[in-house]
Structures are given as structure tokens and as C-alpha cells.
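sry for the spam today, last one i promise. C-alpha cells for design, 121 residues
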């Protein structure tokens, strides 16, 4: 190995150790939601609100509601009440099993996805 490469490789290794945990931390991780996962809620009007661990780009994030038959409904997002939240206009649904499918773009430029199953009584 050429000697000038050694300090370069050390610098790369060092920066990977220093910067990787910070980047990983900035991924959008869901902290809480309404409805909560596996909750049973009263219909027909359902409020949908998600709270994350980091800032979310609302313009490049999506919320969907999947009904019992597997049909996917795109939810209309409302302006964020805080930078780390996503919320949708309340929807009217019948009794049944549903899943909120979320896709969030975090401030580090990475997209994460998840699902929140819940029941409407
Ligand atoms: Cu990330």
C-alpha cells in the first residue's frame, strides 16, 4: 500500500465512526400515533396524527389508509402542527380493520415506512 493512502483511509474510517450514528439517528422513527397501533377506536370520524423522532418533510411524505378489502386510500395531509409530525384530514370510515401506511422523508434525506393497524368499532 502506498504510504500516502494510510492517513486517508484512517480519516475515512474515523469519519464513518463519528458521523454514522448521527445520520442513523435522524431517520424518521415513529414515536406515537393516533390511532395507536392495535388500538380500537370509535368511528365514523377518525383523526390521524403521527409523531416522529425527527423533523419530517411534509411535502415529501405520504399517509395512506388501507381498508379491510386491501384497498389503499390516499389521505389528505394537513399542515404540520410541529416539524416532527404528520397528520391527515379526518376521514369517515365504517366498522372494520384498517391500517395506516406511512412514508416519511426525514431531514437527513432518508425515507422510512411503517404500518399502524387499528380497529374501528
Ligand atoms: Cu437516514
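last one done:
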Amino acid at each position: 500500500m502506498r504510504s500516502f493512502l494510510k492517513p486517508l483511509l484512517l480519516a475515512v474510517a474515523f469519519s464513518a465512526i463519528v458521523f454514522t450514528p448521527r445520520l442513523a439517528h435522524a431517520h424518521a422513527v415513529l414515536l406515537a400515533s393516533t390511532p395507536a397501533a392495535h388500538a380500537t377506536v370509535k368511528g365514523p370520524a377518525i383523526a390521524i396524527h403521527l409523531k416522529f423522532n425527527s423533523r419530517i418533510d411534509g411535502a415529501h411524505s405520504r399517509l395512506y389508509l388501507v381498508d379491510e378489502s386491501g384497498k389503499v386510500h390516499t389521505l389528505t395531509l394537513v399542515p404540520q402542527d410541529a416539524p416532527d409530525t404528520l397528520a391527515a384530514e379526518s376521514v369517515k370510515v365504517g366498522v372494520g380493520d384498517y391500517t395506516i401506511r406511512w412514508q416519511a422523508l426525514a431531514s437527513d434525506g432518508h425515507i422510512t415506512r411503517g404500518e399502524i393497524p387499528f380497529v374501528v368499532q
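Residues 5-25 form the longest helix (21 residues). ok im logging off now
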